[in-house]
Amino acid sequence: MRALLELIEMGALMARTEDLEAKLDADSLAAFRGAGILRPTDYKAHEEISPSDFIRTLRALYRIEGRGLPVAGVFDRHFQSIGWVRDEDGDRSVVLVPQPARGLNIAVHHPNRALLLVPTARAVTAKHREHHGPGRWVHIEVLEEALSTKGGRLARGDVLLPGAAASSAPPPPARAKIEGAERWNQVRICKVHGKMVRIDIGKKRHRRTHVDLGMAHKRSRKPKRQWALLIELCEGHGYFKSWKFGNAEATRKLVERLGNDLCAILGLEDTPFHRYRRDSGWRTKFVARPDLPDGISEGEDADD
């Protein structure tokens, strides 16, 4: 929950799917996607953060009346009115403060009775809480404290966002485990094509896609960066030395993630990579090939 609200506070309108899946639990991801707050985009492996759907969601959860006020398509850097709620004292304006570090100290001087909604508590001080608590002329409410997820839907108290569960994300791809290897030098991984490899252990041959190996994004089923690196290693006969995946630290982390994935798939504890060398880069302990071995045709290839 908090990770996405922090992005909104930062003014972000797009996020990498890989980062979202790393920072948000599956229920929160399903809830935000189901509400339309996170949307697919044509930009590969990224998702759009929709201000209009975020505001529509708040209107539903807080029972905010729009009264003809249009739903904004962008986040204001300071604050923006999104409607009105009624309580025992009458109308109260509802004001979203997307970037409270910029706008909260201005918004607290709202001339009318107001409910200020801020994404996280990072800019909310003890003084704010003392002077702008429940029942005050201007009341500050922190969304990360007020909202929750229930079964893939966003909720506020007893109010559950309707219709979100039907659009929730599909379950994560199951990772197919392969047994039989005791050491990495008993393993051979051959590229079949861009979305399939063959893993050989002795006389056993196992064709696996990026989805089979758990190297696919949960929603789009598109290959993760670990799969792209595995294909690069196959094409390089087990060697990789490039800036294709970022700087040295980013590449090291990606190699580590791929190593952890392969260990989980094959049930081995030792890393599948030799120590990095400046002259040759990264090198696998298993045999990697850009194609199937000579003398073995597709028709003769008896996989499990």
List keywords for this structure.
304 residues; alpha+beta; 4-stranded mixed sheet; 9 helices; elongated
Head-to-tail CA distance between termini: 41 Å
Strand order of the largest sheet: 4-5-6-7
Structural class designation: alpha+beta
Domain count, please report it. Answer: 2
What's the total count of β strands?
Answer: 16
Number of helices: 9
Q: Percentage of helical residues?
A: 25-40%
Query: Could you list the spans in which at least 5 consecutive residues all have pLDDT below 50?
Result: 164-172, 297-302
Relative strand content: 15-25%
The backbone outline, from C-alpha atoms, is elongated
- The chain-level mean pLDDT equals 89
Q: Biggest β-sheet, characterized?
A: 4 strands, mixed
Question: Summarize this, please?
Answer:
This protein folds into 2 domains: 2-149, no CATH class; 184-289. 28% of the residues lie in helices and 23% in strands. It has helices at residues 2-9, 17-23, 26-34, 51-62, 100-107, 126-131, 143-146, 225-235, 248-266; strands at residues 14-16, 38-40, 46-49, 80-87, 90-96, 114-118, 138-142, 147-150, 153-156, 159-160, 187-193, 196-201, 204-209, 239-240, 282-283, 287-289.
Note down, in words, how this protein is organized.
The two termini are 41 Å apart. Strand 11 and strand 12 form a beta hairpin. It contains 9 helices and 16 strands. The model is unreliable at 164-172 and 297-302 (pLDDT under 50). It has a 4-stranded mixed beta sheet with strand order 4-5-6-7, with helices on both faces. A 4-stranded mixed beta sheet has the order 13-12-11-16, with helices on one face. The protein folds into 2 domains: 2-149, no CATH class; 184-289. It has helices at 2-9, 17-23, 26-34, 51-62, 100-107, 126-131, 143-146, 225-235, 248-266, and strands at 14-16, 38-40, 46-49, 80-87, 90-96, 114-118, 138-142, 147-150, 153-156, 159-160, 187-193, 196-201, 204-209, 239-240, 282-283, 287-289.
